[in-house]
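User: Hi! I'm working on a homework problem where we have to compare a predicted structure to a textbook description. Could you give me the structure for the chain below?
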Amino acid sequence: MKYLVPFFLAFSFTAGAQAIHFKSVVVDTHNDAVTACIEKNVSLDQDLRGINHSDLARFKQGGLDYQLFSIWCDGDKKNPYAWAMREMDTLDAVAKRNPSKMVVAKTWKQIDQALKEGKLVAQYGVEGGHMIEDDINKLDTFYKRGVRYMTLTWNNSPSWASSHADEKDPKYKGPRGLTPFGKEVIKRMNKLGIIVDISHVGEATFWDAIKTTTKPVIASHSDAFSINPVSRNLKDDQIKAVGKNGGVIHLNFYSAFLDSTYGKKAAAFYKAHSKEIDSLIATGMQKEYTLGVIVTKYKAESDAIKPDIEVLMHHFDHIVKLIGIDHVGLGSDFDGIDSAPLQLKTVLDYPEFTKALIKRGYKDADIAKVLGGNFLRVYRANNSN
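Assistant: Happy to help. Predicted structure tokens:
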């Protein structure tokens, strides 16, 4: 069985990277495969090699045990709550067809049992507070469906919180930080057991959330601003605040968040294929997924501008230096991004991250914390059942 670190026994792993990786509970807190499957009209239990970063078979092959699936739509989508229900229905149907392979777990007992049986633990993370449509009671429904974190904002802002994108936009006229209703949302999330996710939020919202929450938070898919100064990344004082809160920062694999030189190269690549991108958008595909289609089609071109995994590890080392090994995890953003480090092409490649940790001299027990134990600690701090 998988080793639950740090709740049960602490083990000292002495084998190589594969043994450490496949004996640890590996958790990824952010994957957009559900949206990607809907956009591409495919199903997660199909063989999606060459189509998606992820599918049900490859999760197991890559050693992944526990996936929080993003429930997402952009700020322009009408009826975002109904869209969230559709996305959860989609994955629930996959789980129903594959009871021996995965379970949408809603209690710690179900999580523990699934891990013992070698099944994929699936839960949901709602990516954007706009999906509750200003109705706090929708959080209760989300929790019952298996939602275990909510990102307070996506790039757009709900009426009660400001995003990183809007806070830097001089035309934005909405609230800065959390409104009184926004603080009530945090309190309800704490009460239910929905983890507060501060990826995507603006700085004012971040600090209001840290002051309001009584439970550890996560950044489900974020990197370090001091390594690459984009507004989606966390500044050093924010990183330290997450550590003090007892939370965990889960590293995003997106090249543009990791590598400060990637943006210009990517812009030139997409400009060269702009007519195809526009044609895909015209079919109704959301822009984020048109980019992924282009990257797949022109693989050699896109690979030529991707960073090395060492760039990701610079972010990892920086966060560990600031707040310690107990506060870092994995939040790949697979199937929501169009580019990741060369060694991290799909969910098959999680062991490459483990190899990079071994190369840096981290102890086996600390590697197990990073791969999943740190998230499990935060999960238990937010959920008593």
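For your comparison, note the following. The longest helix spans residues 364-382. Residues 17-259+307-382 form a domain with the TIM Barrel fold (CATH 3.20.20.140). Good luck with the assignment!
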